[in-house]
Amino acid sequence: MRFKFILAYLILAASTTQAADLKKYDVSTRGGNTDVDYEFTLDQPEVNTLASDTTKATLLAFYTATLGPLGPLAAQYVNDRIADVKQKAGPKGAWVKMTIRNGSQLKVWDVYPL
């Protein structure tokens, strides 16, 4: 896993474009649960290439940089839902909202067209 993270970081560092655009990052405790709310946008080229290894590695580095240990989990949730993102994206891309509860459970998943 460490090698994948290093590789993803190097790909991100070499990239001239940023993967995604972070809109919200919030950690809160509700009813004894810890929720990490995370919202970001993907432009249309990012949506179109979500399944590529390069985009996956770049997004993994982006998620890990913003979510720390939850980064790989968030990346996996997005990878598992590529078809949903592509289906719901608009002509300018997609706005993605997710909430990860207690460090392991996807509580909220929403995709809005841009």
Descriptive notes:
The structure is a single chain. With about 110 residues, this protein is of the alpha+beta class. Helix content is about 45%, strand content about 35%. It has a 4-stranded antiparallel sheet with strand order 1-2-3-4. The termini are far apart. The model is unreliable at about 1-15 (pLDDT under 50).
How would you summarize what this structure contains?
The chain is of the alpha+beta class.
Number of helices: 5
Helical content (DSSP H or I, runs of 4+): 40-55%
* Poorly predicted ranges: 1-17
Instruction: Describe the strand arrangement of the main beta sheet, using strand numbers.
Output: 1-2-3-4
Determine the strand fraction and express it as a percent band.
25-35%
Q: Note the overall shape.
A: globular
Extended strand count: 4
Largest sheet: 4 strands, antiparallel
Q: Which structural category do the helix and sheet elements fall into?
A: alpha+beta
SSE pattern, N- to C-terminal: HEEHHHHEE
C-alpha-based Rg, rounded: 14 Å
Instruction: Report, as a whole number of angstroms, the end-to-end distance.
Output: 33 Å
On the 0 to 100 scale, the average pLDDT is: 85
